[in-house]
Amino acid sequence: MTWLDDQQIFDANCTPPAIDDFPRDLFSERQRQDGAVVLHVFTSLYLFVALAVVCDKYFVPAVERICQALNMSNDVAGATFMAAATSAPELFVNVIGTFITEGDIGVGTIVGSAVFNILAVAACCGIGAGI
C-alpha cells in the first residue's frame, strides 16, 4: 500500500472543489478563526432585521393596496403572494449558481423545489383542514 500526498490526490481528481467557485471572503482563514466570523454573524442579523422592517413597513401595505385595487379577497391574495414567495429563493439560488459560481445547478433546482413546495403545501393544508 502506498501513501499519496495531497497533490497526487488532487491530480487524480480532475474536478476542482466547488468552494473555489465562490468569490473570496473579505477575511483570511486565520482572521476568521481569530474572531472575524463574529462580524459575519452581526451583519447577517442586521440584514434579517432590515428585511423584517422593509417587509412590515413597505411590502405588506403594498400588497394590501394591490388587493384593494384588484378587488381580491385576503385568501386569494395570500395564496398568490405566498406562491411567489416560495419560488423566489429557488430563483435567486439559480441566478447565483449560474452567473456567480458558473455551476451546473440549472433547471433542476427550480423544478425539484417546485415539486416539493406543491406537495408539502398541499399536505400541510390537508393536515390543517381537519383542525
Structure description:
The mean pLDDT is 76. This protein has helices spanning 6-12, 29-70, 74-100, 107-129. The radius of gyration is 22 Å and the shape is extended. The protein contains four helices and no strands. It has 131 residues and is mostly helical.
Task: Give the N-terminus to C-terminus distance in angstroms.
Answer: 63 Å
Please, how many helices?
A: 4
Tell how many strands the DSSP assignment holds.
0
For the largest beta-sheet, the strand count, sense and barrel status come to: none
Parts with pLDDT < 50 across at least 5 consecutive residues: none
Radius of gyration: 22 Å
Measured as a percent range, the helix fraction is over 70%
Quick check: average pLDDT? 76
User: Which overall shape is indicated by the principal axes computed on the Cα atoms?
Assistant: extended
One letter per element, helices H and strands E, the order comes to: HHHH
Decide which structural class fits the backbone.
Answer: mainly alpha
Q: Strand share of the residues?
A: under 5%
Pfam families: Na_Ca_ex
Transmembrane segments: 36-55, 76-100, 106-129
Family: Belongs to the Ca(2+):cation antiporter (CaCA) (TC 2.A.19) family. SLC24A subfamily.
Membrane topology: Multi-pass membrane protein
Note the main attributes of this structure.
single chain; 131 residues; mainly alpha; 4 helices; extended
